[in-house]
Design goal:
heterodimer, A: alpha/beta, Alkaline Phosphatase, subunit A, nine-stranded mixed β-sheet, three-stranded antiparallel β-sheet, B: 24 helices, 58% helix, globular
Chain lengths: 401, 418
């Protein structure tokens, strides 16, 4: 989702007023998160991984044994000998070697056929639906933002290292914190007095100017705390581009920051990280394999390192792709897809009914599991919250049985 | 609002940053005459650089990257030397039909698209949409060249309706599928820098599209889009967000703009709307606006800048996250406060300072003022209406060092948000 849409979404009705965003915004530095302590033991931690662009679920968790799979995708299907075998005729994309290792240790759960009624094929609208957990009408709050409202509203409880607050962390009365991860180097002639001076609010100024000033105040907070992360201002990115890329720092950098916070004992309960660039309408096979590998490597390493820390990771995208490949050896926007879960307390295995590849809804998969079932499980089992009020009275819940 | 701040506001929004001398001239001419002068088509023809031939393979890719950097530099030079509204409007359209050279991999095609946006950008949107649907860079960017009768590729048809002409909610999934069929058969070629229609790949079957049934071609599809009741209000909102304020425009303003028949007319209507006056100080400068405005006001001659001194400009734009021809996604660049982060504040401090090194004359101008008058001289130079007390306090402490004073002015909240 592009940032224009995010902003429009966040401020459209004024429920999440620009003021609340300024307060959440980047008002926290990494040091604030590292040093954040709760009243008691932290409880379990949710790391939500958003894949922007619509990852092709059928070429991620691959139903290689279903003849309809190869028939629909003659030149982009994976055969049994190419996939990383799971069970029951399913295999993982060869780019997911690290996750396959975790599967072998019964630590990767795959929930198949996750979606919502009357699927929307716009990247932007479908991502809104996933992030607000409201498929019926536009909603101004994100599902984890509403959890934050019920959990006391401290922005440090829900943290993102992306440059813009993701809608899912915007609540009605509170918002998560976006935390700058870069190193801070001030040019000559700029000192704390300048930063504090520019950072002073001026009475009556516009929201934009107030935000510009607040950035300087934030710099005062973060200036002595940063070390170790690379600032990339000369980089001329050489990665292949698709039209729906993300704007976040590389996933390994985001997860490295999450690791630092968790190992420092931060009381943060939710981390949002993201990876963009999954929109392959053409020449998909090798490109998807390569971007899945760039998800797999840091994610598997993160899961290994976090074992025993009470961390649960959930991976989703705004939709899967059409069952039948297009003529460009790519796939167009589709519907249901798999959600991946891993971490402490998550029993490995394949869950939910896989959607039929032949009984289709206008060429698309029919979802077998509502995405709110997955959210309800995460809210109840990981965040110790009552899912009902947060999910608009939704009563379903994913169980591992 | 004084006459000076009124015309300053007008020029700041319609152009890439007015100089003090341009504001002086505008005050003398009056707001109405200034508006017409700024909106007039440019007489000066653009000399588009030859981007060089396309070559496949790894070396070709590196060459294409160099060519793309040269093309961006050429455009920045043009923005900095052009006092009217047309070049900024072209940049608006570039962000609207956001296409990136990272996938197109041809500077020639990107420059070709830029010329199309410039040629048709000020008129009615009919010719623009007709031209863009057959633009080779856009076709490659959204996989139009892979869209054939055998299996249509919906990417281009969807984004054309969702992001370029109508907005979400004005069309259905069936319209996307029908639109994709209508657009089948176009192929883009990087080597010849052209798009051609291949009848054998086209699906001529009649479709139902946006409530009309029949056999459409690319032009009748374009016409259907621009005649759709959602089109002009959609465009009015997009223009308002870039020229007015990041907030959704009120219904009256949207209706006022939508009554116009050309984009130039919509701009005229926008800056003469009541809400426009109230929007002074509400809009965050995009990095390209911040940079080219500073270049103009500081009198840096980009055309005369040797290759090895371009770092502060190109590096600054990369650090701030906006390089021409490289939007992050088909959704374009963000509007408003997303540009305001701790890292962008650092970048404005650093690259503002680097810019002052290229501008000894601007520093001299400040140094020539009496020390007590230098913050006002700085406001005049940077066309800032007034400093807040907080900013004045920071600047006053730097009046003994004119170069530092100038750099701080460029990073100030008042200069960053206009």
């Amino acid at each position: 989702m592009d940032t224009i849409t995010r902003r429009r979404f966040l401020t459209a009705s004024g429920v999440v007023a620009a003021g609340a965003l300024v307060a959440g915004g980047t008002a926290y530095g990494l040091g604030d998160i590292l040093g954040f302590r709760g009243d008691g033991p932290t409880g379990r931690i949710l790391v939500l991984v958003t894949l922007y662009g619509g990852n092709d679920g059928l070429n991620t968790v691959i139903p290689y044994a279903d003849p309809a799979y190869a028939a629909n995708r003659p030149s982009m299907a994976y055969g049994h000998d190419q996939v990383l075998d799971l069970e029951d005729g399913f295999g993982l994309n060869p780019g997911l070697a690290g996750l396959h290792r975790l599967w072998g240790e019964d630590r990767l759960a795959i929930v198949r056929g996750v979606g919502y009624p009357r699927p929307d094929r716009s990247h932007f609208r479908s991502m809104d639906i996933w992030q607000t957990a409201n498929p019926d009408r536009p909603e101004n709050t994100g599902w984890l933002g509403r959890w934050l409202d019920t959990a006391g509203g401290d922005p440090r409880l829900a943290v993102s290292f992306e440059p813009v607050l993701p809608p899912l962390l915007a609540g009605a009365t509170s918002a998560g914190a976006t935390v700058p991860g870069g190193a801070l180097t001030l040019p000559q002639g700029v000192d704390g007095t300048v930063l504090a001076g520019f950072g002073t609010p001026a009475p009556g100024e516009s929201t934009g100017r107030a935000r510009a000033a607040a950035c300087f105040a934030d710099l005062v907070k973060v200036r002595d705390l940063m070390a170790g992360t690379v600032e990339d201002d000369e980089g001329d990115a050489d990665e292949p581009a698709t039209a729906t890329g993300g704007q976040a720092p590389p996933l390994d950098q985001q997860l490295a920051l999450v690791t630092r916070c968790i190992e420092a004992g931060s009381a943060t309960r939710v981390y949002s990280v993201s990876l963009g660039g999954f929109d392959f309408h053409a020449d998909e096979k090798s490109a998807q394999e390569s971007i899945l590998a760039s998800l797999d490597k840091p994610l598997a390493a993160f899961a290994e390192r976090m074992a025993g820390h009470g961390v649960v990771v959930a991976v989703y995208s705004e939709f899967g792709r059409r069952v039948r490949a297009n003529a460009s050896e790519g796939t167009d926007h589709g519907t249901a897809s798999s959600v991946l879960l891993l971490g402490d307390g998550i029993p490995g295995g394949l869950y939910a009914e896989p959607p039929s590849l032949t009984d289709l809804d206008d060429g698309d998969l029919r979802h077998t599991t509502d995405f709110r079932d997955v959210y309800a499980m995460l809210l109840a089992d990981v965040l110790d919250a009552d899912p009902g009020p947060i999910l608009g009275g939704w009563e379903g819940r994913l169980t591992f049985s | 609002m004084t006459d000076r701040s009124e015309v300053s506001h007008l020029l700041r929004r319609l152009t890439f940053g007015p100089t003090a001398a341009e504001v002086d001239a505008a005050v003398a001419a009056g707001a109405g005459a200034t508006l017409e002068r700024v909106l007039a088509p440019i007489g000066r023809p653009a000399t588009v650089p030859e981007a060089g031939p396309f070559r496949p393979g790894k070396e070709g890719r590196q060459e294409a990257r160099r060519q793309a950097t040269d093309a961006a530099w050429w455009w920045l030079t043009r923005m900095a030397s052009e006092p009217g509204a047309a070049e900024k409007l072209t940049f608006f359209w570039h962000g609207h039909w956001a296409t990136s050279v990272r996938k197109v991999r041809s500077a020639a095609l990107m420059l070709g698209q830029q010329q199309t946006l410039r040629r048709y950008g000020g008129g009615g949107t009919g010719p623009l949409v007709r031209a863009m649907l057959r633009d080779p860079a856009l076709i490659i960017w959204l996989d139009g060249q892979r869209n054939t009768r055998k299996a249509p590729n919906e990417n281009l048809a969807r984004e054309v309706m969702e992001l370029f002409t109508l907005g979400v909610g004005a069309y259905t999934e069936d319209d996307v599928k029908a639109g994709a069929r209508v657009l089948t058969g176009w192929r883009a070629d990087r080597t010849t820098a052209t798009a051609t229609f291949v009848a054998a790949r086209h699906d001529p079957a009649p479709v139902t599209l946006l409530g009309r049934s029949g056999a459409f071609d690319i032009d009748s599809y374009a016409d259907l889009l621009v005649q759709h009741p959602a089109h002009l209000p959609f465009l009015a909102r997009r223009l308002w967000n870039r020229y007015g304020s990041p907030a959704t425009p009120d219904a009256a303003t949207t209706a006022r703009l939508s009554a116009e028949r050309t984009t130039t007319g919509m701009l005229r209507s926008l800056v003469t709307a009541e809400a426009f006056t109230a929007a002074n100080g509400a809009l965050v400068k995009q990095p390209v606006e911040w940079m080219t405005g500073a270049v103009r006001q500081l009198g840096v001659d980009l055309g005369a800048l040797p290759q090895n001194k371009r770092g502060p400009i190109l590096g600054g734009l990369r650090a701030l996250g906006q390089v021409p021809f490289r939007p992050p996604s088909v959704g374009g660049w963000p509007v408003g406060t997303p540009w305001l982060t701790t890292s962008s504040a650092q970048a404005r401090l650093r690259y503002g300072q680097a810019l002052t090194v290229l501008a000894p004359e601007a520093v001299e101008t400040l140094a020539a003022a009496a020390r007590g008058d230098r913050t006002e001289a700085l406001a005049r130079l940077l066309v800032v209406d007034a400093w807040s007390d907080r900013t004045r306090a920071v600047l006053s402490a730097a009046t003994g060092e004119p170069r530092r004073l100038l750099a701080l002015g460029l990073a100030s909240p008042e200069y960053t948000v206009h």
